[in-house]
Amino acid sequence: MYEIPERVYHALTMKIVPAPAVSAIALEGDTPTMRLFALLEVIASKDQLFSLQALVEATGLPKPTLHRMLQQLEGAGLLQREGDGRHYGTGVRLRRLAENLLLNDSHHGARHTVLRHLVEEVGESCNITTLSGSEVVYLDRVETAAPLRFYLHPGSRVPVHCSASGKVFLAQMTAEQRKRLLAHAPLERCTPNTLTDLGKLEREIKRVQRDGFAMDDEEFLPGLVCLAVLVPVAGAGHRGSSGSNGSNGGNGGNGAARGNGDGGGKGGTGGTGGNAVTRSNLCVAVQAPIMRLAAAKARALLPALQRAAAALAAIDAEAERSSSRARA
Question: How far, in whole angstroms, is CA 108 from its chain's centroid?
Fold first, then answer.
């Protein structure tokens, strides 16, 4: 059996708190292949590295069996051994698989429709993003019809520290997780506005945690402004609003991408009892040239962005229900 305590993001108080007790996960499977898959699920479900001994203690499997399983997964590129030679984490091939699933899943059309309607409402380019390592990946994007625009196609990658979506993802992590992600290489200065000092970035993250949304004020590209919110976790119910204007909730987390994401919602005034929520790995964002959308004006688009985030969460909630019915 497998159980490791964790900490989660509390939707009402917007603080990192101990997670509630959860049922242990059995490492089960009818075939050797399915048991390998179950081991991958265990390792991918937590934001931490695992040693062979830790997995032995967590699963109860014999050390030679686990060692053989880890060697198979490492050889396939699904896991990778860290520099100390003792700890294992998810490999490049497994992360690419997760990204491709998000880019090409069967609900892409429904999400794209939500994004297209959002662009029609706000009149600017909008995108859906996910976190992959220290980069934000564009899963989908709809461009505005306006002649002046910045073109970033699906699959584009931007640094996590200087993008609005990236700040939202960072705001869900603990300070230790952020440090582990960002502290080992200098933060690239993309524009004069880019935050390259960890202390200043940490203060910005605190603001995102307080307000429930993030801004990119010409920090990634000169002349580009972006506003982003998190997509609510599928099946977790309605949460409070993001930001200070009390609109319906738009930042909890997302079921389709929750394996790599971080503690959900920045709920404000409309929360439902302060439930701790699972981590999300989807954001929805609007981008525009600063000559059309100054930072102050961008905040006025927050309610529309939150409505789109709620619609995206509803799509994933229905997908989860359909999957549950199929398994029943």
Answer: 17
For residues 134 and 74, state if they share a domain: no
pTM of this prediction exceeds 0.90: no
pLDDT band at 66 (very low <50, low <70, confident <90, very high): confident
Residue 166, amino acid: G
**Same domain, yes or no, for 67 and 199?**
no
SS3 category, 18: strand
Distances 27 to 42, 49, 64, 75, 76 between C-alpha atoms, Å: 8, 18, 16, 21, 20
Claim to verify: residue 179 and residue 160 sit in the same structural domain: yes
As a whole number of angstroms, the distance between CA 152 and CA 150 comes to 6
Which letter does DSSP use for residue 137 in this model?
E
Residue at 1 is within a domain = no
Residue 63, domain extent: 7-90
Average pLDDT over residues 34-43: 84
Q: SS3 for 14?
A: coil
Residue 77 identity: G
The reported pLDDT for the residue numbered 103 is 64
Side-chain-facing half-sphere of 240: CA atoms under 13 Å: 25
The candidate with the shortest Cα–Cα distance to 277, out of 295, 253, 307, is 253
Q: Are the CB atoms for 82 and 89 separated by under 8 Å?
A: yes
